[in-house]
Design goal:
heterodimer; A: mainly alpha; Sodium/glucose cotransporter; Helix Hairpins; 4 domains; five-stranded mixed sheet; two-stranded antiparallel ribbon; 33 helices; B: mainly alpha; about 65% helix
C-alpha cells in the first residue's frame, strides 16, 4: 500500500475521532449526557489499559513464552472483580475530595503535602516516558509493514498530532475534576475499534486459516515448546505487578477515578472490564501459533498485521492497523492529560504561587491552563526524545513491564493510606524514595545501559543481584527488592514518626470515608473576610461559577446576596471546590494565604479521638447550635439596625424633602413678587428663567415620588415590545451623557453579546440603565473612570453587569442601598435618594431583579431579566 | 453511632454477599495460580483452563453486581 494512502486513512480516522469528541462535547454542553456517561462508556474508556503494547506485543510475547502474556490481564481482572473492596473506596474518596490525579490523592491523604505530590509526579513522568515512546514506536513499526518506502518523521508527526488533539479536548475546562466528555467518548469509540480488530483477526485465523477450534488446539499442541512452560515466579510476580499497575498508572487513575461520573458504574465495570480483557486476549495464542507456522522469519510483534496481509486480506489488515493505531493514540492522549494535570498542579503552580503570591493579584485560570497545555507538549516531547535516543530496538513487552514496576512504587503509600490511619507523610516519603531509587538502579537505568553491571566493584551492590541474590529474573529481582524496601521504609517511617494535625485529619477522613458522619473541619477557629474569599475564588473558578457558588451558599445560610458567612463548613467546601481545579495542596495554600492562620490545631484534633468521639460530637452539636444562635442573633441585630437606620433616614428625608420643596418654593415666591413690581425687561427675563428652572426641579422631585408610588402600588402599565438589548443600552448611554457632562467616563461594551432580543418594556428598562450609568458618572471617583457593561445569558435569562472602577460601596451600606431614601454620602451630589429604589421596583414589575455584586473591584450592579 | 449486634434476615444476607464480593479476587488468584501446581499439561489445555476460570469470574461478578450494584452503604 502506498505511503500516502496510509497517511490519508490515518488522518481521516483522526478527523472522525475529532468529530466524535466534538459532538460529544456539544451534547454534554446541551445537557444531553445520559448515554455519554453510561456504565458502558465508562467500561470502554477503561480499555486504555490495552495499549499498542498489548495489542501487538501480546502476540509477540505469546510466541516467545506461551501463556505468560495472560498475567498482564489477570492482575486487572482480579482487581476489578474485587471492586467492592478497594476500587469502591478509591472512587468514593476521589469524588468526595475532588481528587485531580494520583499524585493529588497521595498529597491530600498525607496532610496536603506537596512534597509527596512532587515525588509521585516525578516517578510517574519517568515511568511513563518510555511507555509513550513505545506507542510511537508501534505506530512507526506498523507503518513500516504497509509502506515499503518508510519515511523519517512519522513518529514526529504522530506526536505533534496527538499533542494537538489532547490540548484541544483535554484542557477545555479548568476544573480537572470536571469530566472530559469529548475525550472519554472518543476513547470509547477507539476501544470498540480495538476489540473489533482483535476479534476479527482472531476469527479469521481460527476459522479462515485453520479449520476451527479443534484444529487450532491440535496446532497449539504441535507447536508447544519447552520455553513455553510456565515459570512460577514470573507467573505470580507479573500478575501482581499488573494488578498494582492498573491501580497506580496515572492514566488508569484518570479514567477510573477522575472521569467517573457515577459510583454505580464501577459495579458494571467490575464484570464488564474483565470480559473486555478476555475478548482482547482469547485469540492471542492461536494468532501466535498460526503466525509462527506461516511466517517463521517474521517479527512476532507484528503478526496481527502480517498474517492477514500474507493471506491476501488487505481490508482485515487495515482494520488491524486501525486497532493498533487506536490503542496507541488513546493511551497517549489520556496519559498526557493525567501527567499534565500532575505537573501543572504539583510543580508549576506551587512555584508560581511562591513567586507571585497571587492570592493578592493576577489571573490564576489562565496560568493554570497555559501550564497544562505546555505540560502536555512537554510530556509528548519527552516521549519522542526517548524514542529517538533509544532507537526503538527492544521488544515491546519488556519496556511496558519496566513502567509497571515503576508505578507500582506508589502502591504501598496508596493502599496504606486508604486502610491504615497510622500511615504518615514521613513513612510515605521514605517508602516512595527508597522504592523509586531501587527501581531506577536495578531496572530503569540498566534497561538502556546507563549503569554498569558490576555495581561499582562491590559484590552485593550489583544491579541484578542486590545483596547477593543471584539467579533471579532481573524484572522480578527489581520488583521484589524495590517493593520490599518500599514497604519496609513506609512502615518504619510511619511507626517512628508523629503525624501533623492535618495528616491525622485527612487520614481519618480517608480511612473512614464510608462512615457518613463528617469529622471536624480543618478550618475551625477565626474567619477571613468573605469578600476576599470571593475575589480569590473568582480568579480560579471564573467569575460566574464563583458567584453562583457563593450565592447558593449564602442562600443555604438564609441570607440574600452573594456573601455567605465564612463558616468552617463553607471554607472546607470552598477548599475542595478549588482543589478540583488546582489540586489539594495548592488550594489549601491559597485559602491559607487569605485566612492567614494555621488551619487546624492539636486541640481541634481532640475531636478526632475515637474514645471521646461521642461526647465530642454532642458538644460539637451544642457548639454549632450556639454558633447558629449567634448568627441568628447577629442577623436580627442587622435587621434591627437596618430598620432603625431606615426610620432615621425617613425622618431625615421628610425633613429634607420639605427643605427641598421649600427652597425652590421660596425663590419662586421671591422672584414672582419682584416680577409683580416694576422691572426692566431683561431682568424680568432672567428672573422668569430662574422661576422656570426651580419649577423644573420641583416637578422632577414630584415625578420621582409619583413614579415610585405608582410602581409600589403595582398599577404600572407596561408597553412590552421586542427590542434589541444593544439599542436600549445605546439609548441609556446617550441619555446619561448630560450627567456631569465634562466628566469623562470610558465605557467598555461587548456588542456581540448585546445583540440579544428581549421582550420587555424598553422605556422602563432604559430608565434602570440610565440610573446605573448616571450613578457611575456621578460617584465613580477613580482618576481615570471606567465602566464595563458585561452581558451574559444564564439561568434562562440574561444578566447585564455594570462595573465601574471606583471605590465601590462599603460593606455595611451594601444592604440598604436599594431602600427608599437611602443615600450614601452627604457630598452634595444632587439626587433624591430614590433612584435605586425606583430601579428595584421597575425590575420587579419587569419580572427581573437587580442586585449589588460584591468583589468586583468597584461598584457593580447586576440586572437580571428573564428571556 | 452504635451498630446493631444482630441483623434481620435480609440485611444479614446482603452483608454475606458483600463478604463474597471481597473474597472473590482471592479465590480468583488461587484458581489462576493452579496451573503452576499441575504437571505440565501443555499450553493448549492450560490456556483453556485459564479462559474457563476467567469467564467464571466474570459471571460471578456479574451476578454479584445484580445484588450489590446500587448499594452505597457504609462499610460494615
Amino acid at each position: 500500500m502506498p505511503f500516502n494512502l496510509l497517511v490519508l486513512s490515518c488522518v481521516s480516522y483522526v478527523v472522525f475521532l475529532f468529530l466524535v469528541a466534538f459532538i460529544a462535547e456539544r451534547r454534554a454542553a446541551a445537557g444531553k449526557v445520559r448515554w455519554l456517561r453510561s456504565p458502558l462508556v465508562y467500561t470502554l474508556s477503561l480499555s486504555i489499559y490495552c495499549t499498542a503494547w498489548t495489542f501487538y506485543g501480546a502476540v509477540g510475547s505469546a510466541a516467545a513464552s506461551g501463556l505468560e502474556f495472560m498475567t498482564i490481564y489477570m492482575g486487572p481482572t482480579l482487581v476489578f472483580v474485587g471492586w467492592w473492596g478497594l476500587l469502591r473506596k478509591l472512587v468514593r474518596i476521589g469524588r468526595q475530595q475532588r481528587v485531580t490525579s494520583i499524585a493529588d490523592l497521595i498529597s491530600s491523604r498525607y496532610g496536603k503535602s506537596n512534597l509527596l505530590g512532587v515525588a509521585v509526579t516525578l516517578i510517574s513522568v519517568v515511568a511513563a516516558t518510555p511507555y509513550i515512546a513505545l506507542q510511537l514506536q508501534s505506530v512507526v513499526l506498523s507503518f513500516g509493514v504497509f509502506a515499503a518506502d518508510d519515511r523519517e518523521g512519522t513518529a514526529l508527526w504522530v506526536a505533534i498530532g496527538l499533542a494537538l488533539f489532547t490540548v484541544l479536548f483535554g484542557t477545555r475546562n479548568l476544573d480537572a475534576n470536571e469530566r472530559h466528555t469529548g475525550v472519554v467518548t472518543a476513547i470509547a469509540v477507539e476501544a470498540v475499534v480495538k476489540l473489533a480488530a482483535a476479534l476479527a483477526v482472531g476469527v479469521f485465523v481460527v476459522w479462515g486459516i485453520a479449520g476451527g477450534p479443534s484444529d487450532i488446539l491440535a496446532r497449539i499442541t504441535a507447536a508447544d515448546r519447552p520455553e513455553w512452560a510456565l515459570e512460577p515466579a514470573r507467573w505470580a510476580g507479573l500478575t501482581f505487578a499488573s494488578a498494582a499497575a492498573v491501580i497506580c498508572l496515572p492514566r488508569m487513575f484518570q479514567v477510573l477515578v477522575v472521569e467517573n461520573a457515577d459510583e454505580t458504574h464501577l459495579a458494571t465495570a467490575g464484570w464488564a472490564f474483565p470480559l473486555y480483557l478476555l475478548g482482547m486476549s482469547v485469540f492471542v495464542i492461536p494468532i501466535a501459533v498460526v503466525g509462527l507456522e506461516m511466517l517463521p522469519d517474521g517479527n512476532p510483534d507484528l503478526f496481527v498485521l502480517t498474517i492477514p496481509l500474507e493471506a491476501g486480506r488487505g481490508d482485515l489488515a487495515m482494520l488491524a492497523f486501525l486497532g493498533g493505531f487506536s490503542s496507541a493514540t488513546s493511551m497517549v492522549i489520556v496519559a498526557a492529560i493525567a501527567l499534565a494535570t500532575m505537573l501543572s498542579n504539583h510543580i508549576v503552580m506551587p512555584i508560581w504561587l511562591g513567586l507571585m503570591r497571587p492570592a493578592v493579584s493576577g489571573d490564576v485560570r489562565r496560568v493554570v491552563l497555559l501550564s497544562r497545555r505546555l505540560s502536555i507538549a512537554g510530556v509528548l516531547a519527552l516521549g519522542y526524545a526517548y524514542f529517538r535516543l533509544s532507537g526503538g530496538g527492544e521488544a515491546l513487552a519488556s519496556i511496558g513491564l519496566i513502567s509497571f514496576v515503576g508505578v507500582a512504587q506508589v502502591l504501598p503509600a496508596l493502599v496504606g493510606g486508604l486502610f491504615w490511619r497510622g500511615a504518615t507523610r514521613v513513612g510515605a516519603a521514605v517508602g516512595l524514595t527508597l522504592g523509586a531509587a531501587v527501581w531506577m538502579y536495578t531496572l530503569f537505568l540498566p534497561s538502556f545501559g546507563a549503569i554498569s553491571a558490576d555495581g561499582f566493584g562491590i559484590g552485593w551492590l550489583r544491579p541484578h543481584a542486590l545483596f547477593g541474590t543471584e539467579g533471579m529474573d532481573p524484572l522480578l529481582h527489581a520488583l521484589f527488592w524495590s517493593l520490599i524496601l518500599n514497604v519496609a521504609g513506609f512502615c518504619a517511617g510511619s511507626i517512628l514518626s508523629f503525624p501533623s494535625p492535618m495528616e491525622r485529619l485527612q487520614g481519618a477522613a480517608f480511612v473512614g470515608v464510608f462512615d457518613t458522619a463528617p469529622g471536624p473541619s480543618g478550618w475551625a477557629g477565626g474567619a477571613p473576610e468573605a469578600e476576599d474569599l470571593l475575589v480569590m475564588a473568582q480568579r480560579i473558578l471564573g467569575e460566574e461559577t464563583a458567584l453562583t457558588l457563593f450565592q447558593a451558599e449564602a442562600r443555604a445560610q438564609g441570607r440574600a446576596g452573594y456573601l455567605p458567612d465564612p463558616t468552617p463548613a463553607f471554607l472546607e467546601r470552598l477548599e475542595r471546590r478549588l482543589a478540583g481545579a488546582v489540586g489539594a495542596a495548592t488550594a489549601h495554600a491559597m485559602i491559607f494565604q487569605v485566612a492567614g492562620r494555621a488551619a487546624v490545631t492539636v486541640a481541634d484534633l481532640m475531636a478526632v479521638a475515637d474514645e471521646a468521639a461521642q461526647i465530642m460530637e454532642y458538644s460539637a452539636r451544642l457548639e454549632s447550635q450556639r454558633q447558629e444562635l449567634t448568627r441568628t442573633a447577629a442577623a436580627l441585630r442587622d435587621a434591627n439596625a437596618k430598620l432603625t437606620r431606615l426610620a432615621e433616614q425617613k425622618d431625615a428625608f421628610l425633613g429634607q424633602i420639605s427643605h427641598e420643596l421649600r427652597t425652590p418654593m421660596t425663590s419662586i415666591l421671591a422672584f414672582s413678587e419682584i416680577l409683580m413690581g416694576d422691572v426692566a425687561p431683561e431682568d424680568a427675563r432672567r428672573q422668569a428663567g430662574i422661576i422656570h428652572a426651580e419649577a423644573i426641579r420641583l416637578t422632577r422631585l414630584l415625578d420621582d415620588l409619583l413614579d415610585l408610588s405608582v410602581l409600589e402600588s403595582g398599577q404600572v402599565k407596561l408597553h412590552v415590545s421586542d427590542v434589541r438589548l444593544r439599542a436600549v443600552l445605546d439609548r441609556a448611554l446617550a441619555a446619561a451623557e448630560h450627567v456631569r457632562p465634562r466628566h469623562d467616563l470610558t465605557v467598555f461594551r461587548d456588542s456581540g453579546a448585546e445583540a440579544l432580543v428581549l421582550r420587555t418594556d424598553p422605556d422602563r428598562l432604559a430608565q434602570v440603565f440610565i440610573n446605573l450609568i448616571a450613578n457611575a458618572r456621578k460617584y465613580c471617583d477613580a482618576a481615570d473612570p471606567q465602566l464595563r457593561i458585561v452581558v451574559r445569558a444564564q439561568d434562562g435569562g440574561v444578566t447585564v453587569d455594570f462595573i465601574d472602577n471606583g471605590r465601590g460601596i462599603p460593606r455595611p451600606a451594601q444592604a440598604s442601598i436599594f431602600e427608599k431614601f437611602a443615600r450614601l454620602d452627604e457630598s452634595g451630589q444632587a439626587g433624591t435618594g430614590l433612584g435605586l429604589a425606583i430601579c428595584r421596583e421597575v425590575m420587579m414589575s419587569l419580572g427581573g431583579t437587580i442586585a449589588y455584586l460584591p468583589g468586583q473591584g468597584g461598584a457593580a450592579f447586576r440586572v437580571w431579566l428573564p428571556l | 453511632m452504635k451498630r446493631p449486634l444482630f441483623l434481620a434476615r435480609g440485611p444479614y444476607r446482603r452483608r454475606r454477599l458483600r463478604d463474597a464480593a471481597r473474597i472473590l479476587p482471592f479465590a480468583g488468584a488461587v484458581l489462576f495460580l493452579m496451573p503452576l501446581l499441575w504437571p505440565s499439561r501443555g499450553t493448549g489445555l492450560n490456556g483453556l483452563y485459564m479462559l474457563a476460570v476467567w469467564l467464571g469470574l466474570v459471571a460471578v461478578a456479574a451476578v454479584l453486581r445484580l445484588w450489590l450494584g446500587d448499594e452505597s452503604g457504609p462499610e460494615d
